[in-house]
Amino acid sequence: MSESLRLYTSILFGFEFAVRSMPASAWDEPSPCDSWTRREVAGHAMSVVNNIAARGGVGTAVDGFTGVADFAGPNPYDTFRRCRDRYLLATDHEGALQTMIKSRLGEMTLDTYIGKMCIDTLVHTWDVAHGSGVDDSLDPDAVHTIWSQVSGAASEGTDLVRGPGFFDPELPPTGADESDLLLAFTGRAR
Q1: On the chain, which terminus has fewer CB atoms closer than 10 Å, C or N?
Q2: In the predicted model, is pLDDT for residue 26 greater than 70?
Q3: How far is Cα 13 from Cα 23, in angstroms, rounded to an integer?
């Protein structure tokens, strides 16, 4: 199994927990993701999962930035399970990860694309859970891996998270652990 696939699948477990645990009354409340509700953030994150599957040959790609509340639907956990199952089907066969795909990030292998989507799903897991009564703790191993990647690239002058449709400007961290640093780097404050 590739490191990208292992990491992304692990991150999906955390996202699934947040979506499954969300009180029905909290879905349409504001999220920390500027001007999106939790339902919209979840719809965006689920579109990423869906689009990994679609690029792997299972299902159809969707726009991850428009109509995301409708994509999440009235029961986001049901939507997530369908996306997750397509993702598993698309990635669970020989040669799947070496498939060349096109995305707004360019042409690359499906494995590389999955690796690039790890930060998106990880941070949006926090966006969905934070302030809802759901545990918003992120997997420390996933945080360590992602923080090492983005902070290492930033120290070399490359910003892996900014640009149109990416994360907000960096904020001062509110704490010193890697979760605090990663969240602040992606424009979030605890």
Answers
A1: N
A2: yes
A3: 18
The enclosing H or E element of 184 equals helix 178-185
Give the model confidence (pLDDT) of 28-37 as tens digits. Answer: 999 998 889 9
What's the CA gap between 185 and 141, in Å, rounded? 17
Nearest to 16 by CA among 60, 57, 49: 49
Q: What is the mean pLDDT of residues 95-119?
A: 93
pTM > 0.70: yes or no: yes
73: nearest Cα among 123, 9, 13, 28: 28
| In this structure, CATH architecture of domain 3-133 | Up-down Bundle (1.20)
Dump pLDDT digits (tens) for 50-77. Answer: 999 999 999 999 999 999 999 999 999 9
Is-contact 16 125, C-beta < 8 A?
no
CA distance 130 to 24: 15
SS3 at position 90: helix
Q: What is the DSSP string of 132-160?
A: TTS--PPPHHHHHHHHHHHHHHHHTT--S
Q: What CA–CA distance (Å, rounded) separates 129 from 136?
A: 5
Would you list the domain boundaries of the chain? 3-133
What is the pLDDT at residue 166? 73
Q: Which helix (H) or strand (E) holds 180?
A: helix 178-185
Report which DSSP code applies to 30: B
